[in-house]
Amino acid sequence: MIALIRYVLATVLHTQRYLAPLLLFTGLMGVLTVNGSGPLPPAYASSAGALFVSSTWLTVALMSLDDPPQRAIVVITAGGRSLRVLLAVIATALLSCLVMMVFGLLFPLWTGDHVVTATDLLLGFEAQLTCALVGIAIGVLCSGQVFRRRGHALVTALTLVVVALFAKSVSPVNRLFTLMATTPEATRLLAPAGALLTISAVVLAVCTAATHFVAGRRD
Q1: Residue 134: exposure state from Cβ atoms within 10 A (0-12, 13-18, ≥19)
Q2: What is the 3-state secondary structure (H, E, C) of 70-99?
Q3: 26 lies in some domain
Q4: Which of 140, 160, 8, 168 is nearest to 74 (CA)?
Q5: Residue at 28 is within a domain
Q6: pLDDT exceeds cutoff 90 at 202
Q7: Which one, of 55, 160, 176, lies nearest residue 124 by Cα?
Q8: Residues 6+ away with beta carbon under 8 Å from 62
Q9: Does residue 25 form part of some domain?
Q10: Burial label, 44 (beta-carbon count in 10 A; 0-12, 13-18, 19+)
Q11: How many Cβ atoms sit within 10 Å of the Cβ of residue 49?
């Protein structure tokens, strides 16, 4: 698995497909969190939202690194286990998101005027990880392994992102943002944020299983 993750990382660094999602993340962070003040939960909701959109784009890019012949070679090299290759891509996306999460936690503190506590930082971590998992789930499901045409994949991804952001009580992302926007005390948000984090992990597992099933039927 480590060798597969290193392969995916080397490929994405060589192709520079990480640049657009990374620039989108930093741009959204600059617009949404600069010169903020007051309680930290709303600021961390903004950084989590930026990571959600960026993680979706990044995962789609990672899933499309190899064309079908190259992907077949990678699967054979991995012992014929296509699920192992898929999990390596997901692990790479998650590792990349963890790096962005550090920036998402610290940047609002640097550019704004906030009183920070350990509870605030833990809440920010939970919020960003929740959004990253849902974003990765959408990116996996809207990849070329599921959709033959990129246009269909793009429309589906945009639709799911909009639904996750704005449809009330449909996704853990919207529920999380609602809680963080209306409850300024981080201590009251830790438990519900933890529950939403668990739900997001289940969403990722379901989308991974669905993608593996569809790709297996095609192969």
Answers
A1: buried
A2: HHHHHHHHCCCCHHHHHHHHHHHHHHHHHH
A3: no
A4: 8
A5: no
A6: yes
A7: 176
A8: 8, 12, 17, 89, 92, 93, 139
A9: no
A10: buried
A11: 23
Tokens of residue 99, six digits: 């790096």
Q: Which amino acid is at 122?
A: L
Residue 23, domain member (yes or no): no
Closest among 186, 103, 95 to 132, alpha carbons compared? 95
103 lies in which domain range? 2-14+38-214
CB atoms within 10 A of CB 28: 19
Overall pTM surpassing 0.85 (yes/no): yes
The mean pLDDT value of the chain amounts to 86
**Count of beta carbons in the 10 Å neighbourhood of residue 80:** 9
Q: How far apart are CA 194 and CA 43, in angstroms?
A: 18
- Given a contact cutoff of 8 angstroms between Cβ atoms, the answer to whether 87 and 208 are in contact is yes
For residue 103, pLDDT beyond 60: yes
Question: How many domains is the chain built from?
Answer: 1
Cα dihedral: 7, 95, 162, 203 (round 10) = 90
Kindly write down the DSSP assignment for every residue of 24-67, as one continuous string: HHHHHHHHHHTT-BS-HHHHHHHHHHHHHHHHHHHHHHHHTSS-
